[in-house]
Amino acid sequence: MPEGHSVHRIARQFAANFVGSTVAVSSPQGRFAEGATRIDGHRMIDARAVGKQMFLEFDNDLWLRVHLGLYGAWDFAGDISVDPTIAAANGRMGQTNQRGTVLDSAGENSLHSIGAPRRTRLRMSESEKLEPEITEFPPEPIGQVRVRLLTDTAVADLRGPTACEVLDPAQVDAVIAKLGPDPIVDDGPEAENRFVTAVRKKGTPIGLLLMDQSVVSGIGNVYRAELLFRARQNPHTPGKQVSEETARALWRDWVRLLRIGVETGQMMTMDDLDDESYRKAMASRDDRHWVYKREGLPCRICGTHILLEEMAGRKLYWCPVDQA
């Protein structure tokens, strides 16, 4: 499932390529035909993400809410501005030097060699993939497209979302009110205090609270495992037994890691890497995380084998020594 950084990056694509334009909205699949007619032909005036949910505002005071869930994805195509962290790697996210100049696979500065906008196709979900340039515009829909958003120069196709609906402002406010704080939306003291209070009043294990979108927005399996290891926090500890200091440290670390994810397109969770190690980590998940997907391998700190267990139906990775 896409985590918070992915949804914020998708919102950025809409801000760069759709906001300010009149949009033709259709439902090639047919399942969203009624909703599409409500916003068809209107100008998109805003694109924002809160946690794992995205909201697109139109000039008739209506919003399109999308939650990608486990299987959803957006395909962008046309003369779109491609984020250099994608273009430099030709879609293989992370195969680029993020420290300083952004280089493409030939070692050239992608901001100049790739150029923007570019007539291409870009898939954005849990990961991002840049596909070959398109030969006609708009391209034919591929697969079961729930909704198509089309301007004179760009198209976005949505497939397989958990939620796709048109809402009025009051309904949008009601959805957002149920969500926990999102550091990209608000990383100030009020958001931090809200998170700390929510955690420390519950007897639920902290490993579950971090995945509860009403407690904090945007954290999924990867960030949950990595945040808890970085804090040396046992995932089974009830929230009300987590110290205030640790709860605040978890929030501040989430602020930092989320921003790194939005800027690089990668859930980079390891610190203090030299340039070569950083490039390896950006190119391969095996070198990017402390515990996630490392079950049975030695902990990078103590050497104990990383454990894998199930917590409320989701996989949990942790070190039984460093997080004892």
UniProtKB/TrEMBL annotation:
It comes from Leifsonia poae. GO terms for molecular function: class I DNA-(apurinic or apyrimidinic site) endonuclease activity; damaged DNA binding; oxidized pyrimidine nucleobase lesion DNA N-glycosylase activity; zinc ion binding. Belongs to the FPG family. This is DNA-(apurinic or apyrimidinic site) lyase. It is an enzyme of class 4 (lyase). Residues 290-324 form the FPG-type domain. Pfam families: Fapy_DNA_glyco, H2TH, zf-FPG_IleRS. Keywords: DNA damage, DNA repair, DNA-binding, Glycosidase, Hydrolase, Lyase, Metal-binding, Multifunctional enzyme, Zinc, Zinc-finger. Transmembrane segments: none annotated. The keyword Electron transport does not apply. Its cofactor is Zn(2+). Residues 2-78 form the Formamidopyrimidine-DNA glycosylase catalytic domain. The keyword Repressor does not apply. Its EC number is 4.2.99.18. Gene3D superfamilies: 1.10.8.50, MutM-like, N-terminal (3.20.190.10). GO terms for biological process: base-excision repair.
